[in-house]
Design a protein that fits this description.
With about 625 residues, this protein is of the alpha+beta class. The chain has 4 domains: about 300 residues, ATPase, nucleotide binding domain (Nucleotidyltransferase, domain 5, 2-Layer Sandwich), CATH 3.30.420.40; about 80 residues, Alpha-Beta Complex (Actin, Chain A, domain 4), CATH 3.90.640.10; about 110 residues, Sandwich (Substrate Binding Domain Of DNAk, Chain A, domain 1); about 110 residues, Substrate Binding Domain Of Dnak, Chain:A, Domain 2, CATH 1.20.1270.10. The chain has 18 helices and 30 strands. The strands form 7 sheets. Strands 1, 2, 3, 4, 11 and 12 form a 6-stranded mixed β-sheet that branches. A 6-stranded mixed β-sheet has the order 18-13-14-15-19-22, sandwiched between helices. The longest helix has 30 residues. The protein is elongated and about 95 Å long. The two termini are about 55 Å apart.
Length: about 625
């Protein structure tokens, strides 16, 4: 009999595994020491030994340059994606590698975040294997709902490096809802409020007769319990500076680790007590400092951070077209939700006490175990329908983006658009794949390019290229293109060297809302200009072909209308271009009638000028290649 499939919560601060037992209920697996939690900390000792978990966390103050924490925040990032906060609070050296992929230089060797995460996964799985009595290799791993393709791929890679078979990547809020679904949560609309160590996610789900359907998801990119710790530590550092502690000491990596650990302890204690004492002692630097911290003061320090969770909650409800009073239950997930002020703000926002019957630090792993059991053939009455967090599409000629799969679309998902060529005898088309909510490609994130080569030479507009976007159940994207007449096809799995940071994803969504109107105008303007350029080129060819057969008055009217389109293209009015194009279509009708027979004889399959001069709503010119290959394409309506 095969070993069971394990559910793993690979967290920013802590990680753990869970398994569904013989009683049909998921439970966190506790190691031989009785602990379920494995701190997500890795320390590289002299001589090559790798220390993971609690022992590594204890080494952080004494060996900060070689101890890595919060590595999850680095997954899928390039070195240029690092924020100043991340750089200043991480004592180790960051170096770029292939494609600017981020690496950490530790004891003369470079490690990717995937490799370090693999060490954490190995520790979690080894502990679990010791408990179940056999080697476990098949796992389900959870990720934040706002992880993009690159970050999910990085998580998959970490599992592979750890020697694991990752059967499924599961969103953390969705996993939590699965756990609560087995724990008596009734059918209805459920909000999962997930404030973990490094990320904040909020998901709105509808549960009905065993079907878990995600309606919308949102989040804050750089927000979690780590930020609460940092806020306390920064307050302490300010007071220590005022008390005369030298700046050189306050920048010491070892003292920074002592401060961070003391702040974390204070945060946890203040969830149970009304006050606690912060003690900072670093004999190496001659620093000794202490102060009492009351819960009320702590809450005032972190109040702005807690308030940052409100906006994403409201946006998620808006995307789901719901009001707070329509929510039947609010589920709390993540260690930071132990903070009483967090629970109070959630109750105030939704008008009901949050539902927290399960351990917030274990519930994600429990849900992953439920999904793992389902993959083994259990829980057949459960159906999970998740969503993709950001829109996916391709750049069109002129810089606009044609959205193929909108954000909050249920996954797995498949959608297609049809394209054609922009120039006569064009044999290749470049599709620039983008992700984001803005209307222009320059404001979205580039995921890669798909080049379709080998198209038989035909007049512009004749090829029919079907471009299909497919997102699988793990949220990973594949794009294919096929030309109908020739059967030529191309395929690419979108796996960028490094992907969107969580901060950038949130920024893209927020900017899209703030710039929605101007983005729409800019995109329409770019599209109509491209459409007009295409029409004018085809018109000029038809006029030259009909030379000597049209009267001077008609030619003059066509030229005047053409000049009107050119003038409109130089302006900033989409309606002006659209009107000029429609007028040109009207005055060019005699030319169309004259060239109909000629066009047919040239085997253009009856394609008339009025088809070529279709409106901007029906035709978009796709993006030019930027790699020197030169082909363009036209999006067909």
């Amino acid at each position: 009999m095969a070993a069971p499939v394990l559910g793993i919560d690979l967290g920013t601060t802590n990680s753990l595994a869970a398994l569904v037992g013989a009683d049909g209920k998921p439970a966190a697996l506790r190691g031989l020491d009785g602990e379920a939690i494995v701190p997500s900390v890795v320390s590289f000792a002299e001589g090559g030994a790798v220390v993971v978990g609690r022992a590594a966390r204890r080494r952080a103050a004494d060996d900060p340059m070689h101890t890595v924490f919060s590595v999850k925040r680095l997954m899928g990032k390039g070195i240029e994606d690092l924020t100043e906060v991340e750089r200043s609070h991480c004592p180790y050296e960051f170096v770029p590698a292939d494609g600017s992929q981020l690496r950490l230089k530790i004891r003369g060797r470079e490690y990717t975040p995937q490799e370090i995460s693999a060490q954490i996964l190995r520790e979690v799985v080894n502990r679990a294997s010791a408990v179940v009595g056999e080697t476990v290799t098949r796992v389900v791993i959870t990720v934040p709902a706002y992880f993009d393709e690159s970050q999910k791929q990085a998580t998959m890679a970490a599992g592979q490096i750890a020697g694991l078979q990752v059967l499924r990547i599961l969103n953390e809020p969705t996993a939590a809802s699965l756990a609560y679904g087995l724990d008596g949560l009734h059918d209805g609309v459920v909000v999962v409020y997930d404030l973990g160590g490094g990320t904040f996610d909020v998901s709105v789900l509808k549960i009905e007769s065993g079907v878990f359907r995600v309606l919308a998801t949102n989040g804050d990119a750089a927000l979690g319990g780590d930020d609460f710790d940092r806020a306390i530590a920064e307050r302490c550092a300010q007071e220590m500076r005022a008390a005369g502690v030298p700046e050189t000491a306050l920048r010491d990596p070892g003292l920074l680790q002592v401060l961070r650990a003391a702040a974390e302890r204070a945060k946890m204690e203040l969830s149970e007590k009304l006050e606690t004492e912060l003690v900072i002692s670093e004999d190496r630097l001659g620093v000794r400092w202490r102060r009492t911290l009351a819960r009320a003061e702590f809450e005032s320090i972190v109040a702005p951070l807690i308030e940052r969770t409100v906006g994403p909650c409201r946006r998620a409800l808006s995307d789901a077209e719901l009001e707070p009073e329509q929510v039947h239950a609010v589920v709390l997930v993540g260690g930071a939700t132990y903070v009483p002020a967090v629970r109070a703000r959630v109750e105030q926002l939704f008008g009901r006490k949050p539902y927290c019957e399960l351990n917030p630090m274990e519930v994600v792993a429990l849900g992953a175990a439920v999904q793992a059991k389902k993959l083994e053939g259990g829980f057949q009455n459960l159906l999970l329908l998740d969503v993709t967090p950001l829109s996916l599409g391709t750049e069109t000629y002129g810089g606009a983006v044609a959205k193929v799969i909108p954000r909050n679309t249920a996954i797995p998902a498949r959608a297609s658009e049809q394209f054609t060529t922009f120039t006569d005898n064009q044999t290749a088309i470049v599709f620039h794949i983008c992700q984001g909510e803005r209307e222009l490609a320059k404001d979205c994130r580039s995921l890669g390019k798909l080049i379709l080569r080998g198209i038989p030479g035909m007049p512009a507009g004749m090829p029919r290229v079907d471009v299909t976007f497919h997102i699988d159940s793990d949220g990973l994207l594949t794009v294919t293109a096929q030309e109908r007449r020739s059967g030529v096809k191309a395929k690419v799995e979108i796996v960028p060297k490094h992907g969107l940071s969580l901060d950038e994803i949130t920024r893209l969504v927020q900017e899209a809302a703030a710039h929605a109107k101007e983005d729409f105008v800019a995109a329409r303007l770019a599209t109509l200009r491209a459409d007009a350029e295409f029409v004018l080129r085809k018109l000029d060819a038809r006029v030259a072909d009909a030379a000597g057969r049209l009267d001077a008055e008609t030619l003059s009217e066509i030229q005047t209308a053409r000049d009107g389109v050119v003038d409109a293209m130089a302006g900033q009015s989409p309606d002006g271009i659209d009107g000029a194009l429609h007028y040109l279509e009207d005055v060019a009708r005699p030319l169309v009638e004259m060239t109909m027979n000629t066009v047919a004889q040239r085997a253009v399959s009856g394609k008339l000028l009025d088809e070529v001069t279709q409106s901007a709503e029906r035709t978009k010119a796709a993006a030019p290649a930027h790699d020197g290959s030169g082909p363009l394409s036209v999006k067909r309506g």
